[in-house]
Structure formats: structure tokens, C-alpha cells
User: Fold these one by one.
Assistant:
Number 1:
Amino acid sequence: MASKQGTVDYLVDQMAPAGAIAAKRMFGEYGLYCDGRFFALVCDDQLYLKPTAAGREWIGAVVEAPPYPGASNWLLVDGERWDDGAWLGRLAGLTAAALPPPAPKKPKAPKAPKAPKAPKV
């Protein structure tokens, strides 16, 4: 079951205190970014955060589960906590801050000019 756009929009709004939150579609679900750092997934209308010590400490009673089959465990955030934007925003900010910054993108190599076609004889 794919996540609903409304769920993702709501989570992005609730996490706004953390910084620039963006959602990107990934394989039918959504990846969440805070200031360019990939920190969470929304899969099957559930919120999963990358496991960090800061996130575990903030959540308290942690539930871990894989966001999709074959994945390692991530921190599963109970839907009852989503309505507290200050709490959720702080969790997003703490988690993103504990992750390394995104790697700089490599500059694209300039395209080589096309060789002229040889005339047909």
C-alpha cells in the first residue's frame, strides 16, 4: 500500500520547525530531507527515521521496524505523536543534525562536440 500524499504533506508541515523539509518520491513511497540530509522515510503511511542516538534519546520508548521488506530497522514514530509539531520538528532536527552532510555533487563533464558526418559517396 503506497503512502498518501496528504500524509506526507502533513508530516512535512509538522516538521517545519526543524528547517527546510522536503519530500521526494522514492519507489512508490517518500524520502524526507531536512536541509538536504536524508533522514526519514514515509512507507505505508508510517514514519520511519534513521536510527541515531539523539533520536532514540528524544523518543524515549523506541520501537524499531524495517520500513520495507529486507531493510534494516529504523525508528518507527507512533502516529499519535504526529500532531505535536514542536516535538516532531525537534525529533527531525536532532536526527538530521546527527547525520553527515550530503556529499557534494560532482560537476558534470562538458559534452564533447559531435564529429561531422562523413559525406556519402
Number 2:
Amino acid sequence: MLRMETMQNSFQYPIGTPGQKWTDKEVQQWRESTSVKRLYSEDVLPKIDALRDTLEVVQYGALSYDEQRFPLFALKTKTWDPKKPTILVTGGVHGYETSGVHGALQFAKENIHSYEDIFNIVVAPCVSPWGYETINRWNPNAVDPNRSFYKGSPAEESANVMAFVESLDTEVWAHVDLHETTDTDESEFRPALAARDGLDYIEDNVPDGFYLVGNTEKPAEAFQKSIIGYVEKVTHIAPADSKGKIIGSDVVQHGVINYPLKKLSLCTGMTDCDYSTTTEVYPDSPKVTDKECNDAQVAAVVGALEYLKQVL
């Protein structure tokens, strides 16, 4: 999830001293408080392996925390042609955002071939497998990969996928990054962030519904509108709050806010692509199922590609 700050809360995170940034000691305490809750090797890697007959599977690195346990994979269309525009889809930059991972894999299995004659498509379905296993926003060093997409990144997850995208030796025309906004953003991850940085926790509300984060510098209004149109056939779109905002940012059109991607070092800012969007599915809504969350992620990618077909 991406958000701006709104109002202060007195809640204090159990690790660290209020008003003081974490040292290595607190980072270690935090890391020791995490635990494995699901397995990348069981949930994700078999789904990637199952696609080897129809897509090119590329290992673009491995996380040094455990290279055998955390290999990093991307999927590429086999009909790669330098004359075609290239589309990038990323998931699991925040490993705990489940439908980002499984929505990317579902798209690769069920939908990618409908577009491979028109586009080169590359999918990195699980950028942060340690975060996936521990259901965590950060990596083991208490670094947020989705604030680390810049040269000399402190996050292996970000650095590896950036190097891979650069190695493709092609301009990325569009990038769809699949995320979720969850109740744990307010109950765990944002309080932890405030504690880590020695700041007060600023409380906010979790919007009930799907929304998109576009690029302040290249907002691509019609592109975002197309995606929302496809997604709202699958799930509900988050309404603006009483101030016309979602997570503290102005709603620029139905279900869409914009962020300065490069300034914030977000995943969708890793290239200079013309079209980018970050999806935000809300899996904790009583109105949705896990399947609908995955389907919403797929609908977002499809909505993006359908629009791009029209503007080629």
C-alpha cells in the first residue's frame, strides 16, 4: 500500500524507544519477531515451473538470505521481438500482498497469450519471496523494497529486478505493479514504520475497495480509466472520503490517485515508461473473496493491455 499521512495517534510500537530511530539492535529484534507462515517453494515456484512449456522462465537472481530457498524468477513471452512494445508486470514487491503474486501468475497462465502477438510481456510475479513467506512488507533488514527503486538500492529485491529489467535491453512502454491495501497496514506495518524512523504514528483509514496509483508526472488519465472500467466488473472501487481523498491523496478520477513515482522510489518509477499504474486490491473487505482479488489483479492488467492495443 502507498499512502500520505493524516492524523496523529498515541499508539506505540512494541520495539524501539519512542522518538528514536532503530539501530541494528532493534532491526534484529524485529527480524526475530517474524516467522514463516507459508512457503514460497510450495505456493509460488510450482506455478512458475508449470508455465515452462508456454513461457520462457528466467532466473534473474537469488536473495542472499538463502539463495537456495529464494531464487528469483521472471516469465517472458516466447514470441519476443524487438519491434514490439514491451510491457512489464510485477507482483509481490510487498510479499504480504498475496493477490499481487497470484494475480500475476494467473495472468501469465490464463491471459498472456492473448496479447503476445502484439506485445513483449515480462512478468516478475514475486519480487520479495522472504516477505511472501513471513507475510511482511519489509525485507529482513527492515527495508521497504517499494521505497528502494533507485541506483545503489539497499534492498536486494529491488536491485535484482531493476538489473533484470535493464538486461532486457529494451524500453518498457508500460508497467503494471500489483499491490494490496490491507487492514494490517494500519495495525502493523505503518506503526512499525513510524517506530523504525523515530516518528509518531499517523493514523489513517483503510479504504474499502480497489484503487489505482498513477504517476504525477505522466498521469495517463485514459489508461487509468480503462483499467478501472475492467476492474469494476470484478470488484468494487474505493470511494473518495469526505475530503475527496484516498489514503490522504486527492482523487483525480474515479478510483485513481497519483504519486510522484521517482521521488518516492516506487517500483513503477524504475523505468521512464509512458504508462504506469499501481493496483491496490482490498482483500479484507467482507465483499470479496480471494478469487475475486486475484481476478481483479488480472482484470487490471487486461484493462491496461486493451487500452494500449488501441493507442499503438
Number 3:
Amino acid sequence: MNSHTIIIIARILITPLFLYSGSGKIINFTDNVLKTPFGDMLIGKLMIIFAIAIELGGSIAFIMGYRVKEISLLWIFYILLTSIMFHPFWAASGPQQAGQVIQFTKNMSICAGLLCFYLLAREQRKS
């Protein structure tokens, strides 16, 4: 298998996380809005709409190889922000803290993979 094929497979393998999350936000829109720090306010609704666009739109573009460098950076920023907002392990205790640490560190691992996609796309643009 050549490196181009492996890169396509890797892009396909990373997107189900975002596709699943984005489609879940559509299906359970109101519940997701209420989970935001702003609740049912307009800004909470806008946050979820932007999240859907980032997750679903980004996934489609990423699979197609369109703007991989930019989407990688966007997803890294998005994951860092949502991890701080929704997985505050530093504020939890007991078994809940362990679960939040796992979710937070898992997200940091995803960021590491996306950083590799960013660097690879940057190098491909140079050549």
C-alpha cells in the first residue's frame, strides 16, 4: 500500500468521531443546547450550530482531502476548547474525576493525530 492510500485511510478513520458527534447534535439539538454554559439562550443555540458545521462540514472536507491543514487546526482548537469546557477533571473528584481525565487525555491524543495531519498537509503544499 502506498503512502497516499494510507493517508486517505487515516483521514477516513478519524472522521467517524466527528460525524457521530455532529449528527447527534442535530438529532438531540435542544438537549445539546442546554448542555452549553449558556443554556437555552441564543448564544447556546449558535454554539451548537457552529459545532455541527465544524464536525459535519469538516468531516466531509477532511475525507475529500480539502483544506486538511486548516481543518486540522480548526479541529485542534475546537477539541481543546470543548475539552476544557466539558471535561474539567481538575474540578471533579473520585470516580468522576478518573472518567474526566480519560476523556480529556483521549482528546489530547486526537489533537496529536490532527497535528500530524497538519504537518503532513503543510509539507505536501511545499512540494
Number 4:
Amino acid sequence: MEKDKFTLWALSWPIFIELFLQFLLGAVDTLMVSRISDDAVAVVGFSNQLFNALTTLFATVAGGAGILIAQKLGSQREEDARTVAIISLKVTALIGALLSVLLITVPGPIAQMLQMPDELLPLARTYISVVGGGLILTAIMSTLSTAIRNTGNTQGPMYTAVGMNIIHIIMNYGFIFGAIGFPQWGLAGVAISTLVSRLIATLVLLFIFIGTFQRTIVWSDMRIFDRKLFREIMQIGWPLGVNMGCWVFSQLAIFSFLAILGTQVLAARTYMNTLESFCFLLGYSIALAAQIQIAHLFGGGKTKEAYRSAYRALKFGLPLVTMNAFILLLCGRALLGLFTSDPEILTIGVSLLWMNLLLQPGKMLNMAIGDALSALGDTRFVMYNSLISMWIIATGCSYLFGVSLGWGVVAIYACMIIDEYFRGFVALLRWKGRKYLRNKEAEMERERCESLRAAKPASNEERLSFN
């Protein structure tokens, strides 16, 4: 039964449903907010890039802890896995609390610093302060989901996501349209809806988390802190956090470039972000499931199975994301029409649909192999790969060609495509080298030899005693 929990299928389908519901949440959010105005959509898209950037600060700990939990469980060290989960929860809650205070206190200056257009600042202040003020909930929710998921229980976070989406959609509808007894508060209501749904989801995940391990987690366990295990978390986590930060901050920089090009370009990119999420949901679910599976196999010393798991993820993921991108190409204009009737925004969005067909396979390659390397703890390599490619190709070239030379959003999108393929193929070469897998095999061989040597003197003593 334990083995069945860690198959690619058993792990990936609940992750897909959870991510699909998150996508649905974002799509419904964008669709409903578009009924307020295109300016409101631009504020939500821009603000979410800011929130994503800030979440990397606690995702560093949560991501490292998740991989370590799967590795410890794979090596039959349940108590260590439990301690890692408790430590990560405490640390990320503290980081989330500090970020919440920051965003409540100075939302306006933060929006101005990020080049938010002046006409969007009043809406931005409200949205950033309310949703950003609840970043502590995002921190706790992210950590709990990651910990639960990496024990092999991917269904718990999935069911929680179902409930959170239902509550959020109902409240959004009420606040935007003044329906079912709610006041008509527009974008402020959307922000409150986001906050309340996340609070409820956090409480549900906390209830699941308490019983996740064989020994129930109690309030007194919050005093636990193991420095050695925390160092292990950070050894995996800090490069993982830098890698996440590279992506998020590069995207934030790119959104700033788009803001320079105009509100309509910014809104078009926000709508495309929503549609693109549909393309890689299945692929990302498989990549994330493979990461959990590889970490578990690696922790248990099953290096050959861990190596093959990454290729299985690619085998299933590449056709899926390509097919989804093609479907989006056929239906994209009609889908964009659900969000806006602005002809310029529609023209920009449609021009990017063909490019998305090239983007998604590269993104799948990068996700699957990058996550596989991270599962082994080879997060520094992934970090260096990201630092070079994202800042030189994705960000630097986007500014050069898109803004300085005036080639616009198409040039920026082309730079993002090149970045995905570059990082993907470099990661694939690293995976084929099997460095961490060979090191694990050598470590296991040393342990086997040491145990044999330790057994021999005992055997000789026993023979002498017998004689």
C-alpha cells in the first residue's frame, strides 16, 4: 500500500485536480474582475506577480522541507520527516507575518517602485494591502500543502482546493455584482474574498497536517527545533528559493517592461497568463509528482528507478502540453473574447497564441528535469542555470529587444521561449551525467562494506569463544 502511494499516477492525478482548481480560481477571478474594468485586471495581474515574488522567501523553506520529507520517508526515518515538517511550518509562518505587515503598511510606495501606471495606483493600494496582508495565510497554506503532499497524500490538498474554490467563486460573485446579500465592493470585495477563502483552506490543511504522520502533532511540538535538520532543509532550500526567485523576479521585471509598453499590453499579457496555465497544468502535475517519487526513491537508495522516473515524466508530459497548446491555438480568440472586447488587447493576445505552441514543450522539459534534479538535492546547479539564463536571456534580452529596440511584446515572448529551452537542455545534460545518483550508490556501497567489516570481528570472537 505504501508503495502504491508513490506511483506516478497516484501522485499526479490529485495534484492535477488541485492545480486545475487553482487555475480555475485564477481564470474565474480574471473573468469576474474583467466585468469591473480592464484596469482592474491589470492591477490583479501586476499585484499577483509581486505576491509571487515575495512568496519565494518562504517557498525556500517549504520547498526544501518538502523534498527532505520525501527523502526521509524513503529511507524509513519518519520521526525526522515529522520534525522537518514542524520546523518548516514555524519558520514560514514567521516570514509570512513579516511580509504581511510590510504590505499592509506601504502598499502605495511598493506599487510606485514597480512602475505601476499612475491611473492604476488607487486600485493597487487597496488590492495589495488586503490580499498582501494575508500573505501569512499563503505562507502557512503553502507549507502545509507541500508537507502533506510529500508524504504521498496528494488527495488532502486537492479536496481542500475544491472547497476553497467554491467559497471564493461564490464570494467573488456576491461582491462584484452585489448579489446574494453581499455589498457591491468591486475589486476590494475580490480581495476580501481571496483572504477569507485562504483562511478557511489554511484551517482545513492544518487539521489534515496534525494527523499526517504516525505520531500526531500536538501544540507542544511547536517548541521542536533541530539545527542539523534545519541546515539540511536550507542546503536544499536556499538554492531552490533563489531559483524560484529568479523566475518570479524576472517575470516581475518583464511585467514592468510590459507596463512601459502600455496598460493594454499589460492586460493582454495577464489574460494570456490565465490561458497559458491551461496548457501546462497536466505537465506540471506530472513533473511535481515525479519530483516526489524521485525524492522518495532516492532516499531509499533506488537510484536506477529514480533515474528512469524523470524520463517517464517527459514521455507523458510532452505530448500533453503540446496537445493543450494546440487546442488553445484553435480556441484562443474565442476564449480571449470572454475576458475583453478591446480590439487591441485581442490582437495582441492572438499574436501570442502561435508562440505559445513553441513555449510549452520547452517549459515541460525544463519543469520535468529541473524538478528531478531538485528531488536529488542538486538544487545549486538548477539555481546557477536559472541565474544565467533568466537574467541574461529572459530579462536582459527582453528589455533590449522589446523595450530599447521597440520590437514590443512579441520580442519579449520570444526571449521567454529561448530561456525555457536553454535551461531545459542544460538540465537534461546534467541529469544524463547522473552525478548525485552515482554519489548515492557509492555512499551505499561504503555503508555496506563498513557493516561487513564491523560484523567480521564479532564473528571471529564468537568462534574463539566457542573453541
